[in-house]
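pasting for ref
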Amino acid sequence: MMKLAVLFLNLGGPASLKEVRPFLVNLFSDPDVLPLPFFQKPLAQLIAFQRKRRSQSYYRAIGGGSPLQRITQDQAKILEEKLKERFSEVKVYVAMRYSKPTTEEAWEQIIQDQMTHLLILPLYPQCSMTTTVSSIKELRAVMAKKPYSLEQKWLIHSWFDHPLYIDVWAKKISLTLQRLPSEYHQGKVDVVFSAHSIPVKYVEKGDVYQDQIKDTVRKIIKKLSHPEKASHPERLVRRSFSEGGSEGSIQWYLSYQSKLGPIAWLEPSTLGLLKTLSKQNPKRAIVMVPISFVSDHVETLYEIDILYKKEAQKLGIPYFTRVESLNTAPEFITVLEDLVVKRVSV
């Protein structure tokens, strides 16, 4: 009889202020995230020491720690209950790359529970060397260190274009647009898809992340406004959008946030784009879409909701809001369920 283990892979985050420095050390020690020229570990320790207080202030501003671990565990619990309707024995496990529960802890629990089948599901819709590849590399090292025989295992590399994933974002964006003040219902809105940036050198080496982000954005725009396929979503794309019985022109943008270190990262930066929009379109509302994230954490709760919002106010942007993250929305859990069921059924 099949005993199915579904393993979530995620980056993790410090649940408390005292966990900030260890988290930063783990993060900066990973050459797939921050490619340092030499002495990766000592330099990671130094960078973490220098950034500790500043990072702690970010987490203090959002309640004293990242909610990512809690949200991911909630996602796992809800998905497990749904999967029990389809599989006689199934458990969903969580492995965080840079915090607890660690990959080692998750793998040891799978062994202890004597699971026979394993589906590896990275919670990164778009695949990147900095996220999916790094997490899978660590998992393989852990599995090699402590071998365990499975009857079968599956791996989902990415799901950036899953129809239900596109649908849930389109619905959330549409709902946010409907809730805008009436003066913006004529399409006087800039929608900014903000994705986590990655080093340019990875894209030059073949990292598919940027292409997959663009494809996700194109499909969402098409779902919302039925345009011709946008070839460059990071540039201005004007399309008709029906809103509340009226027609207006919504402008769509793609930008990147959360750059680390002095090396070149994907552009345009979200902060830089906000500055540009405040000059080009000073009377338009801005709606932020945290497109590469599936759960709230410091990048959404602090960087967008606090830092970028304050900057928007300084720039004179009249209205600034964010589409809520996917978190444990029933529609998003259905996405995860569909990914599992269809992969295991193959």
